[in-house]
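ok, trying the design again with the full structure, not the truncated one.
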């Protein structure tokens, strides 16, 4: 007596799929099917997963085959994505003549949204940071000569908004650095990726130095000058010496911050000059604003808040803020032209 009949299971998942690639003529990538519904062919496999799925969907639609017969849940989802791509026109059911054509047709759709959001938020950060830093500078007490230490300390002690003003200035610098980092992301999309990476390093270092400067100037120095103003006798002299020592730390941080901000502006300016998506004048403005800012930092490091340092640094800072506003305007305009296009700025 013959034994029980064995039930032969067909190959599972994609083992039933073998593909034939036809290189001539172009766009003639097809599947051959046997009468029993299984696909068979000779030749090499597709090198593009979307093309394989598009071809499979075509075969399944031709034979009326349900996708859930031999596929797992993940494979079903991939097949569903291929159906949507085929019907949306992103993939050709017959398959492209070159596998890279699929990636080229999909990449503009997938990359456009992130670049739009990056340029938009970067533009807001650049303009908002410039206005915030300008507001903090206007509100900062500037009546006394910073080189006349006793008069400057007396003015600082009488200010009730000293800490708040310095926090406003720090917020402005945070927004400006954030805008530059987002600008680095856009610049890194071009061939000159080194400029974006170096710019991020100097921008982050500038933010760290700015935070230390505001901690010393906006908080520590304020505590000492307040106690110095309320003291008398020998205690007043001791507190004045302590406040003067903190002042020198402030001078050191201010000089280094100005130097790093200037170098950062020069780096980004040079990157914008090399990037065809931005106007050349915008890049050169960053270079022109950055060089005197860095020079002012060197002067501050040697002579403190001298008249020469202020004569160099104040106009340079105005140019720097104007440049950041221009960068913000250029990034905002990139919303309507996220890819390579006409110069912006």
């Amino acid at each position: 007596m013959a034994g029980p009949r064995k039930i032969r299971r067909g190959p599972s998942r994609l083992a039933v799929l073998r593909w034939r690639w036809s290189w001539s003529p172009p766009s003639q990538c097809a599947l051959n099917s046997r009468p029993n519904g299984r696909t068979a062919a000779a030749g090499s496999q597709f090198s593009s997963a979307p093309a394989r799925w598009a071809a499979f969907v075509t075969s399944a639609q031709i034979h009326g085959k349900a996708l859930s017969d031999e596929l797992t849940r993940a494979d079903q989802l991939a097949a569903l994505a291929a159906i949507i791509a085929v019907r949306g026109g992103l993939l050709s059911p017959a398959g492209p003549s070159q596998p890279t054509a699929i990636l080229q047709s999909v990449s503009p759709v997938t990359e456009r949204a992130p670049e739009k959001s990056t340029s938009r938020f970067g533009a807001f950060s650049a303009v908002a940071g410039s206005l915030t830093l300008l507001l903090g500078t206007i509100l900062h007490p500037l009546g006394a000569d910073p080189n006349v230490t006793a008069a400057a300390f007396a003015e600082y002690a009488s200010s009730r908004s000293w800490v708040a003003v310095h926090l406003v200035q720090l917020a402005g610098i945070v927004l400006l650095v954030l805008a530059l980092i987002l600008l680095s992301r856009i610049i890194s999309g071009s061939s000159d990726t080194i400029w974006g990476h170096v710019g991020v390093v100097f921008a982050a270092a500038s933010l760290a130095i700015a935070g230390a400067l505001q901690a010393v100037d906006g908080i520590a120095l304020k505590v000492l000058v307040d106690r110095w103003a309320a003291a008398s006798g020998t205690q007043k002299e001791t507190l004045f010496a302590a406040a003067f020592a903190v002042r020198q730390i402030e001078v050191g941080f201010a000089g280094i911050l100005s130097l790093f901000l200037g170098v950062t502006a020069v780096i980004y300016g040079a990157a914008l000059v090399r990037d065809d998506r931005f106007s050349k004048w915008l890049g050169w403005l960053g270079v022109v604003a950055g060089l005197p800012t860095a020079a002012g930092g060197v002067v501050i490091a040697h002579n403190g808040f001298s008249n020469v340092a202020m004569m160099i640094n104040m106009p340079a800072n105005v140019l720097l803020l104007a440049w950041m506003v221009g960068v913000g305007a250029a990034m905002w305009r990139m919303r309507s032209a996220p890819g390579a296009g006409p110069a912006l700025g």
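Keeping the full-length input from now on. DSSP finds nine helices and no strands in the chain.
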